[in-house]
Amino acid sequence: MTAKISYADVEVGTELPARTFPVTRATLVQYAGASGDFNPIHWNERFAKEVGLPDVIAHGMFTMAEAIRVVTDWVGDPGAVVEYGVRFTRPVVVPDGEQGATIEVSGKVAAKLDDHTVRVDLTATSAGQKVLGVSRAVVRLG
């Protein structure tokens, strides 16, 4: 695959389509099975509260993976992401029930770099609070 977006067509400030990702307890159990991370803070409310959390929380790597989907959907090729990093600032609290939680993600081209790459800065929030800090991806465009 190659990126659908052309380097020549992108300017600093270009906004990527924002996305909202639902997260339920079932989502967390599915992710735990896929990742092998069965830490009870991600599925056991009693345990999460005993260790000082407000409720069950989403896996940090799950949150990170959901956020980069804004970039991969925009560029059309997951292989175009050449670098990606975040700082975890707050957990995504996932209450029990049908609604669970949501992760809202937006992105903007922050810099045009060499070799047809751009830096995309992401903003990820849940319940009105920023959950990822310094969330950046370097993407190679067509």
Short characterization:
The chain has helices at 25-35, 45-50, 60-75, and strands at residues 15-23, 81-88, 101-112, 117-126, 129-140.
Low-pLDDT segments: none
- The total of beta strands comes to 5
Outline type: elongated
Rg: 16 Å
Compressed to H and E, one letter per element, the order equals EHHHEEEE
Question: Strand-residue fraction?
Answer: 35-45%
Query: Class by helix and strand content?
Result: alpha+beta
Helix content: 10-25%
Strand ordering within the main sheet: 1-3-4-5-2
Distance between the termini: 11 Å
Helical stretch count? 3
What would your notes on this structure say?
23% of the residues lie in helices and 36% in strands. The protein has 3 helices and 5 strands. β3 (101-112) and β4 (117-126) form a beta hairpin. The longest helix has 16 residues, at 60-75. The protein starts with 14 loop residues before the first strand and ends with a strand.
Keywords:
5-stranded antiparallel β-sheet; 142 residues; 5 strands; alpha+beta; elongated; 23% helix
Topology (elements, then pairings):
Blueprint: E1 15-23, H1 25-35, H2 45-50, H3 60-75, E2 81-88, E3 101-112, E4 117-126, E5 129-140
Antiparallel strand pairs: 1-3, 2-5, 3-4, 4-5
